[in-house]
Amino acid sequence: NIKLSKKNLNITPSVTLTIDAKIKQMKSEGIDVISFGVGEPDFHTPDNIKKAAVKVIEKGSTGYTAASGLPQLKEVICQKLEKENKLHYKPENIIVSNGAKHSLFNIFQAICNPDDEVVIPTPYWVSYPELVKMADATPVYIECSEDNGFKLKKEDLISVITRNTKAIILNSPSNPTGSLYTKEELEEIAEIAVKHDILVVADEIYEKLVYDGEEHISIASLNEEIKERTIVINGMSKGYAMTGWRIGYTASNTEIAKIMGNIQSHATSNPNTIAQYASIEGLTGDQTSIEEMRRAFDERRKYMVNRINQIKDISCITPKGAFYVMMNISKWIGREIKGNKIKNSIDFAEVLLENANVAIVPGLAFGADDFIRLSYATSLENIEEGLNRIDNFLNS
Ligand code: PLP
């Protein structure tokens, strides 16, 4: 009767990864599933990056690097932040980790104490609450309505701030909503954060995937005061189709960077050496394929939004970034579909998967039960077929 970690008994498995595993299982059984569940680009990693990795292996640069990341990669990240985000950092501000998820884990471990509260705008990315809890802190949720583009309102943020508020998470462009904060909106949040002495955890992993001529702006670039209290997170997974390579990074003040580096030096040592070298090529090499992927996502986004809004009793607003659409299913809650009572988004997801072989992620996973999340990181043919199936399923 051994007592295991009380704190971690409360950590739930990642719903999206669980669904992903279920889809892979169904596919391996020969079932023709259309998946809108995926959280990764369906493109291959660009050739120049793959070749750079092969070269590194052949050259034999395969040992450990500095635990917080390869110095040359940190240099390149600083150049990228300067050029693309108007952010001036030095290598000692940068920590390279095993994916942005690991960066986020390090951040909350570095900044949180018991009793601390971390503000999480809802709908949120599935891992934020659990990462905060793993650091002994408490998530505080703010519901952001579809009417407001799923974005945080200034007055709502002010209303949840207490003496225990340590940080706010800002994910722009957002998973799952695709919303993108404007400069004016970021200025409002920055002002509040500075005034109330709150850190900003700015997850910018989807920055390369922005549409309609909109611009991604890093909140840290607004002024020195907000930069000092912001931890910027980015990585190679989404923009460079490098999910499996596991490279993410943070830029922060040196004090926070140092603590994160120390934690990482004991928890994992350096992230994969070969992937770090390949990321140098990713960030400095030809960016043409990155823009091609963005254009392909954009085409799918437009198709998906248009088609969803043609289907009776479901709808969505147009996302400005990332590769997800939040589909409003509130009109189906409480109704019956094919003899199944739909009480919530989980029922909807299950009944859809079983009856129409279409996989989606229930909004409950993101704290938004009136919605389901559809990823358009899949081919246009799949999107067309999947939405036809949803239409038939709901309206036949
Ligand atoms: N942040 C957000 C908002 C994400 O959607 C993801 C991946 O799904 C991550 C961070 C983590 O990305 P990775 O660990 O692959 O770099």
UniProtKB/TrEMBL annotation:
The cofactors it requires, by name, are: pyridoxal 5'-phosphate
- Superkingdom of origin: Bacteria
Alphabetical keyword list: Aminotransferase, Pyridoxal phosphate, Transferase
Q: What are the Aminotransferase class I/classII large domain coordinates in residue numbering? A: 32-390
Q: For this chain's UniProt record, which GO biological process terms are given?
A: amino acid metabolic process
Q: Molecular function (GO) terms listed?
A: pyridoxal phosphate binding; transaminase activity
User: Which protein is depicted?
Assistant: Aminotransferase
Native source organism of the sequence: Natronincola ferrireducens
